[in-house]
Amino acid sequence: MKFLLPCPHSIAELMLWAAEDVNVTFEDQQKINKFARNTSRITELKEEIEVKKKQLQNLEDACEDIMLADDDCLMIPYQIGDVFISHSQEETQEMLEEAKKNLQEEIAALESRVESIQRVLADLKVQLYAKFGSNINLEADES
Description:
The protein is mainly α. Helices cover 68% and strands 7% of the residues. Keywords: Chaperone, Coiled coil.
């Protein structure tokens, strides 16, 4: 009996033979590029989330420090842009609470965006691994 295709002697040879036969179409390249862009975007968003979380922690620390202040008549400088404006302890506390609320909303929006992109990446991974198998590495480097 003659084979039209090379006769593989092992599963490894069959996989190697199949791997060499996979063509990358324009659509596949678009998916790979989309995966790379979204992976990069997630990294940027996570860095932005960390910065905002540090800012939030600073605001929380400032709120605690103001609560510990004994002097109710104390005027507290609050930076708005490039200038400092003195406010009462109560006004400053309200401004800090508002700033904290805004930051928490921004963080939640960024985290929602990350989750959305992660769903897209998971879908792309399924599609790309289905076609390319172990010939494509879509896992992030842990270095």
